[in-house]
Amino acid sequence: MEVVIAPAQELAVLAAEAIEALLRRRPQAVLGLATGSSPSQVYDELARRHTESGLSFAQARGFMLDEYVGLAADHPERYRNVIAADIAERVDWPADQVQGPDGLASDLSAACAAYERAIADAGGVDLQLLGIGTDGHIAFNEPGSSLASRTRIKTLTTQTRVDNARFFDGDVEQVPTHCLTQGLGTIMEARHLVLLATGRHKAEAVHQLVEGPVSALWPATVMQFHPHATVLVDEAAASRLQ
Ligand code: F6R
């Protein structure tokens, strides 16, 4: 596991550089997309590179990590809409080449299985962007998740719903209780994992991720087994590293 400690803007540039290098080498690359605060500067940097130096997503495929269950199709916090606004619609990415698990499906288990097949049919994810929850989740694999898990329905912890209330007018009651999420086993099949974490509130999770024993209690620790994992953290998020 490679750990880089730098200011947030530099971390975003490093992540964007890795994505640009991949897309220039392989325009039809498969990108794994995270939502939330952590990747937002990366998406800004990619949009800038699209406008200023012609970085193209026209042939790329995108797979989101997760989706809330039951949010209305036009809800601004539905992750499909977040990804459209944060990156896909700011670049030349055809809408049908970016997919997420279907949190509005009548059969959620079938939707999860279909999502696994879609990722496999695309040849797997080349580069997976990740954030980390304060409780150590990646995607929405909350503590206790099987390290071998696949895309499935999960209950969000109270901690995650409180953390995400900031996207729902500060009202935790508006945060959905369930989600569909890629499993840890699914994420581990991506060829390169790039995790971003900034801020002191992430310091304990980053400490566990890098230095803790591998355990389902801190799901991100499974990344210690990955052959190509890059952890990009600012000084505050790195403050508990030995
Ligand atoms: C979002 C996701 C989550 C977030 C994590 C950190 O698609 O999968 O694991 O990455 O909750 O969220 P932020 O970046 O908002 O602190």
From TrEMBL:
The Gene Ontology terms for molecular function here are: glucosamine-6-phosphate deaminase activity; identical protein binding
Q: What UniProt keywords apply to this chain's record, in alphabetical order?
A: Allosteric enzyme, Carbohydrate metabolism, Hydrolase
Query: What does the record give as EC number?
Result: 3.5.99.6
| Domain Glucosamine/galactosamine-6-phosphate isomerase as annotated: residue spans | 8-224
Entry-linked InterPro entries: Glc/Gal-6P_isomerase, Glucosamine6P_isomerase, Glucosamine6P_isomerase_CS, NagB/RpiA_transferase-like
Q: Which GO terms describe its cellular component?
A: cytoplasm
Its activity is regulated as follows: Allosterically activated by N-acetylglucosamine 6-phosphate (GlcNAc6P).
Gene Ontology BP annotations: carbohydrate metabolic process; glucosamine catabolic process; N-acetylglucosamine catabolic process; N-acetylneuraminate catabolic process
| Active site annotation, chain numbering | 66, 135, 137, 142
Q: In which pathway does it act?
A: Amino-sugar metabolism; N-acetylneuraminate degradation; D-fructose 6-phosphate from N-acetylneuraminate: step 5/5
Q: Which residues are annotated as site, described as Part of the allosteric site?
A: 145, 152, 154-155
Q: Which reaction does it catalyse?
A: alpha-D-glucosamine 6-phosphate + H2O = beta-D-fructose 6-phosphate + NH4(+)
Pfam families, per this entry?
Glucosamine_iso (PF01182)
Its job: Catalyzes the reversible isomerization-deamination of glucosamine 6-phosphate (GlcN6P) to form fructose 6-phosphate (Fru6P) and ammonium ion.
PANTHER family for the chain: GLUCOSAMINE-6-PHOSPHATE ISOMERASE
**What is stated as this protein's family in its record?**
Belongs to the glucosamine/galactosamine-6-phosphate isomerase family. NagB subfamily.
Name of this chain's protein: Glucosamine-6-phosphate deaminase
What is the scientific name of the source organism?
Isoptericola sediminis
The encoding gene is nagB
